[in-house]
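Thread: quick sanity check before group meeting

JM: Hey all, I'm pulling together slides for Thursday and realized we never actually wrote out the predicted structure for the chain we discussed last week. Dropping the sequence here so it's in one place. If anyone has concerns about the input, flag it before I start.
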Amino acid sequence: MEWERHRAHWPNSNFSIFVEAASHLWHVQQAGQGPSLLLLHGTGASSHSWDGLFKLFCDDFSVTAIDLPGHGFTRIGTKQRNSLTNMTSDIITLCKAQKIAPDYIIGHSAGAAIAMEMSKTLHFKGVIGINAALSKFGGIASWAFPMIAKIIALNPFIPSYLAGLGRNPLRVEKLMRETGSKLSDVQLSRYRALFQDRNHVEGTLLMMAQWNLDRLLLRLDEVNTSTLLIAAERDRTVSPKVSQEICKKLVHAEALLLRDLGHLAHEENPALLHLKIKEFIARTQSGL
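JM (edit): ok, ran it. Output follows.
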């Protein structure tokens, strides 16, 4: 997206910087002082989705939120590095280049998978996943969906076409409603801006086309970091059962179920998420 066009009304834009690392031009937001938090959004979103939590955490933490490659205002240098493994590697490169040393990493949906993959290389005090997308498609979808996404992503006309569809506010509202979350008009307007942008749509498709959880799911025993997986009861995108099942396979993990919230729980009720995450951080700091 064009930064100058959206800067005036984009959440936390006064904390935004742009940096080059790992062939990408990254949009990064940093604020606050204290223990370091890194926030990773999910597929199709951007750092805007952390708006409420970003502000709350800044009181006690040094907070960094980034746009994933091809999402929001981050410009990709190559279309071949949108897989889980490559994005993880590129984010680690970014962190080293900018001297970002997270104590805790919070990931939403696919961002939680990246957080867990990063924890196998870097040392964190804790990982928090919100409605973590840690399950594979079953049956025919396991091969058909990535193949279709790849075909769409490689067609130069499709992203522009889909971005055109995003100009219909009813389509965007319906899409977000299907996550099980209830967003305000202001929150919906940010997703409308994203879905109307060809580059963001293409970045989302590239991530979907290249995404593969096999390596992470087969080696969950390598994830030794204290982990909190927060699931929302009304999530229609990722079943709450996913977090419960993954917890059983991790060495140090706990699951938490939130009532009356959907896939975008951190946008619906940032105050509640802030409370639950701070409680988890306090437990890890006290050694419980």
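AS: nice. Confidence is low (pLDDT under 50) at residues 138-144. The first helix runs from residue 3 to 6.
JM: adding both to the slides.
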